[in-house]
Amino acid sequence: MVNRWLVTGAAGMFGRDLVGVLQGLNEPVVAVTRQDLDITDRLSVRAVVSRYQPTTIVNCAAWTRFNEAETSESEALLINGKGVRELASICSDRSIRLVHLSTDYVFDGTSCRPYAESAVTSPINAYGRTKQAGEQAVLELLPDDGTIVRTGWLYGRHGTNFIRKMVRLEQIRKTVDVVDDQWGQPTWTVDLAQQIVALVRHGASGVFHGTSSGEATWYDLARMTFRLLGADHRRIRPVRSDQVAGGDLRPRYTVLGHDAWREVGLTPIRHWATALTQSFPLLNSD
User: Which N-terminal residues, if any, form the signal peptide (predicted)?
Assistant: First the structure.
């Protein structure tokens, strides 16, 4: 059976690369942006689904403004919680597979080893709580046709991200202060897009962690970015989270485990440093 894809939030950094990967594979895909579809509006969702008749929806639509979520949690919850519930409900009614992008920030960061897919979520910030609500909606309404892919520390060619910020700061600052007490997994959007395509083709559902292998701090990532630029990585200075505005709201350790991929016969995403080295010429081409 031919899979027909609908990608919501398709104007974002990840959505654009997912659509590009699907088009490169000659997969039938419809890309809808926030202007095309308000996922909190049930009638709008029904109209779009009826028009395009997708067999798989990948939800990239989200409130992603981390700091603003602390003062606007109810607004963030409308998109990250209610909107996801509307999508999941309609997918349930029409037997459509839903792949929902979630975040490593659903965990509290107190672990000292990678979080398993089955680990109990316990977000410590508003953004994480709203994304947790979306996860709960998918698990409740789509026990068989719902897939949650948690990711984090994404970077890509489009939009604003940490790598592109470091490239810009290298040009205008003698030194750059970067947090060195938060650990995660830098993940290239193209790697994640390819992984999701493989997952859907495999027909797997449940919770998966869509992050690169290995782990790093923001400081590690900044130093490697400078090295790839041919710049002196000693210009990066380590600082603590409590020295950065909003730093204490972010979990310290959100490294994710990847056992679920192996359990369904798929290989987890490669090491973050390998991916960054390969992708860097593209990221730095603008």
Answer: none
Sheet holding 206-209, edge to edge: 29-31, 5-8, 56-59, 97-103, 146-151, 206-209
User: What per-residue confidence (pLDDT) applies to 209?
Assistant: 98
Q: Are 210 and 268 in contact (CB under 8 A)?
A: no
Verdict on whether the full-model pTM lies above 0.85: yes
d(CA 182, CA 218): 7
DSSP 269: P
Taking 50 as the pLDDT cut, the residues of the chain under it are none
The tokens 């205008």 sit on which residue?
A: 172
Domain assignment of residue 200, yes or no: yes
Domains held by the chain: number: 1
Q: Is 52 part of any domain? A: yes
Each residue's pLDDT tens digit, 34-47: 899 999 999 999 99
Paired residues of 35 in beta bridges: none
d(CA 42, CA 256): 33
Residue 49: which domain range? 5-160+186-213+255-269
Q: The domain spanning residue 197 has which CATH number?
A: 3.40.50.720
Tell me, yes or no, whether 64 lies in a domain: yes
- Active-site residues, by number, are 127
**Stretch (H or E) spanning 276:** helix 272-283
